[in-house]
Amino acid sequence: MELLIILFLATGIFFFVVGVVGLLRLPDVYCRLHATTKCDTLGAGLILFALVLYSGVSNASIKLLIMILFIWLTNPTASHVIAQAAYRNKSPVTEGTFELDRTKEEAACD
Amino acid sequence: MLEQVFIATSILLMAATFLCLFRAVLGPTDADRVVAINVIGTKAVVIISLISLVFYQEFFLDVAMVYALISFVATVGIAKYLQKGSLE
User: pLDDT digit string (tens) for A10-27?
Assistant: First the structure.
């Protein structure tokens, strides 16, 4: 059981560190969102699940499960809102980016 | 033995949080700062949960839940403010 907990913790830390490296190294807002969202959701989920395994059947594990559910609901929503705001603000993108799904109205505006 | 592993985990996460703070200070656009603050909020929730189990203080978990709520609401509010330029 201890080995399982340590394995979950190590995987969670790995995903967090990957997210931070992506946040520091990638070139524009959308790439940074792409790096942090998935790594953050998965890292927090794994570490909190390790804590659930550690605390067994108790009040604490129920609270931790509620927190996991809440983070899995809110983190993608917040990232979606940030991406929408950046897109509407015409946040700068790196060179060589091209858009596949573009309506005719948006193309006519440029 | 697992308590020491939890303490090591929280120290590593604190180091990662300071690296995120670097992006929040430096970020070229406002959206970068909001992304970094969102990541810092998630990491703070995880760190508070780890500390709660290390020191056997169960009410810290309630603090972590409320922190997650406030972090989400703050992120959505700042993103709406970025998009519209005002909060109506």
Answer: 999 999 999 999 989 888
- The alpha-carbon gap from B44 to the nearest alpha carbon of chain A, in Å, equals 10
Question: Helices A29-55 and A2-25: crossing angle, nearest 10°?
Answer: 170
Asked whether residue A73 is assigned to any structural domain, the reply reads yes
- Which residue in the set A13, A24, A84 is minimally distant from B12, CB to CB? A13
Alpha carbon distance A69, B68 (integer Å): 11
Q: Please report the number of interchain residue pairs, chain A to chain B, with beta-carbon separation below 8 angstroms.
A: 128
Identify all chain A residues contacting B31, using CB atoms and an 8 Å cutoff: 29, 82, 85-86, 89, 91
CB B36 within 8 A of CB B28: no
Closest CB from A67, A75, A85 relative to B82: A85
Residue A108 within any structural domain of the chain: no
For chain B, the domains span 2-84
Contacts of A16 (CB under 8 A, 6+ apart): A39, A40, A43, A47, B13, B16, B43
Q: Which residues of A fall within a CB distance of 8 Å from B72?
A: 74, 77-78
This complex has an ipTM of 0.87
What pLDDT shows up at residue B88? 64
Residue A32 covered by a domain: yes
Q: Is residue A26 part of a domain?
A: yes
pTM beyond cutoff 0.90: no
**pLDDT means over runs of 10, chain A (110 residues):** 90 91 88 88 91 88 91 92 87 75 66
